[in-house]
Amino acid sequence: MSQITILSLYLLAAVAFTTSRLPRFESRARPLYIVALLLGATGAVMHGQAIFGLILPRYGFDLTMGNAVALIGFELAVIGLIAALEPTLRGISGGLILLAAFTVMLMGPSGDTLDSASLSWQVRAHVLIALLSYGLLTVGAIVALFALVQERRLQAARISPVNHLFAPLETTERLLFGVAGAGFAGLTLAIASGSLFVNDLLEQHLAHKFGLSLLAWLVFSILLAGRFFRGWRGKRAVRLYLGGFALLCLAYFGSRFILEEIFQRSWG
Questions:
Q1: Separation between Cα atoms, residue 22 and residue 223, nearest integer Å
Q2: How far apart are the C-alpha atoms of 198 and 145, rounded to whole Å?
Q3: Domain containing residue 4
Q4: Does residue 40 or residue 57 have the better pLDDT?
Q5: Quick one: which of 30, 139, 161, 163 has the most CB atoms within 10 Å?
Q6: DSSP state, 168?
Q7: If DSSP codes are grouped into helix, strand and coil, which group holds residue 120?
Q8: What gap in Å lies between CA 148 and CA 89, rounded to an integer?
Q9: How many domains does the chain have?
Q10: Contacts of 236 by beta carbon, 8 Å cutoff, 6+ apart
Q11: Is the pLDDT score of 254 beyond 70?
Q12: Is 135 in the same domain as 217?
């Protein structure tokens, strides 16, 4: 029942955020924004309570892929609400919260909880940091796709009411690099903590995950350095970001598939 409630709150918030950006509703933009913010924030609070309660039950971890995706959805909603503070980003906020809504239906107990007593607090912290940083970088990938679509629309000189759903490209890129910077910091901490606290990477079939995560970290570091020192933007920056994210997806979701489907194990 709570999943349906969260889904409904998110859908209504997404519609309100999106509608507030359309020219025909310009006179009602502020009331729509306030309604959207209240609905979205309520949904995010319920979503956060539900997903962290599932991932961190009293006696262990429940790290299924469905719960991992639902956690990413929670981060989508939170970033969407933060982005909505900038009026021109409310169209993107609606899109992020809409995506978050669909992830809600994936969360649920697996009945196969990993006993946290067998893991040190350092390993548990590593797992949570990794999940949260992957989620942030997923949000960045979605924003990168928004930027790519927006740039193509500008080049094609397409003029329609849909254009109001997109922020100025420079604003979208600032959001992208803000999320990328936070996700990169989390990824750095996740890689460092994994190398220090996760023993026997080869024995636990995690070496490929660690190696691919390190490659993704290198791509993101090049991207952020290029942005800071050379002002990189546009297609080059977006494609480099998506390349790094593809490596990260392969590292995380590929590893989860191998561990859960082939080795019948669970990991973060």
A1: 34
A2: 34
A3: 1-116
A4: 40
A5: 139
A6: P
A7: coil
A8: 15
A9: 2
A10: none
A11: no
A12: yes
